[in-house]
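Dear colleagues,

As part of the handover before I leave the project, I'm documenting each prediction I ran so the next person doesn't have to rerun anything. This entry is a single chain, and its sequence is reproduced below.
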Amino acid sequence: MFYHSVTLDEKSCVGCTNCIKRCPTEAIRVRDGKAVITSERCIDCGECIRVCPHHAKKARFDHLDSIEKFKYKIALPAPTLYGQFNNLDDMDYVLTGLKKLGFDEVFEVASAAELVSEVTRKLMEAGKLKTPVISSACPAVVRLIRVRFPDLCDHVLPLYSPMEFAARKAKKDAVEKTGLPESDIGCFFITPCPAKVSDIMAPISVDKSAVDGAIAISEIFPVLSGKMDKLTSVEPLSNSGIIGVGWATSGGESSALLKEKYLAADGIENVIRVLEEIEDERIGELDFIELNACTGGCVGGVLCVENPFIAKARLQRLRKYLPVSQNHLNRSGIVLGDMKWAQSLEFSDVLTLSKDLSEAMKMMGAIDKIVADLPGLDCGACGSPSCRAFAEDVVRGFCKKSDCVFVLRAKMKEVASTISKLDDDLEKGL
């Protein structure tokens, strides 16, 4: 069973092939003039949404009125949200504005990020993690590793993301504060990307997420801005520092570990290149690797409203006025068990040709044979992202070899030549 926040609007799709070339797991094909998304391959990175010129790819998320299903409503703002506002020098304006929208409480995901950073530091110092440790904060990257890099699954940090941990802590605190049952308390993440929506609806590390919904930054931004403009006073709600807010941009999580041997990469193509080099053991002597599918980190999410580089610059200015960190394990009562994954990350063999090894080898041979007859241009005119992907589709029975325009052209030339030769023979015979 797969849930995906990235969806296709067939009416808007013109089959232009932009998406098939940029999908990191080759999950998209163009068939009969329309894009088709292969559910089991999609990692909801949102890259197709970013590159589609016709807005045929869309993200599913919850709307603001969905919070009314709960008696007690908690907003979980991603630190990325702060970077969307110009001239913001006090995060309490944003947090107070969220309460004016109908939330009873606000729990910053940035504050949970500071605790996740501290736990990660302690686990690494104790030598309890396999190095290089790969961050688990970006669900698109975790899903990418799960389907394309099986040997790296045990390198992924087995801790809840700040979003998930924030929801669990917020609900626990709210139950104690209000006396309400947990079912009456709703936690809603203010999300910069569709991958987080999928992580809520179909989590990998737990059976059920503690987050009850995700509202896009792009949806909440206009109404939140309106509420903020009308504020006459603000509540002192912020409880995060430089470390927590820094998670919104690439390199923020890594720098919070206070280690020198780390690497931070962003943008799905760069992420794949780094993962390939780790898998080939060409990257050594690193303790931690932070990977973000979106350019610039979470500030580059397709559900944000601001240019990621402008948002990053705003956050850098905002952080100047913050303490280093406002959340510490020795004061929170948090233990490792509160943050550790309930399930380990397991490889999902959705890209495997066949579970039968001999059959897979035969298919591989057939693919190689077809590839040898193809031009190697990876033009996408066949509806597949590359010549090799097209050959695989042919072997799997999803299309015909003649769907390649170059193969078809060669056949037509051959037929034309044969007809011409017959005509010549007929003339000679006459």
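The longest strand covers residues 185-191. The mean pLDDT is 93.

All the best with the project,
I.
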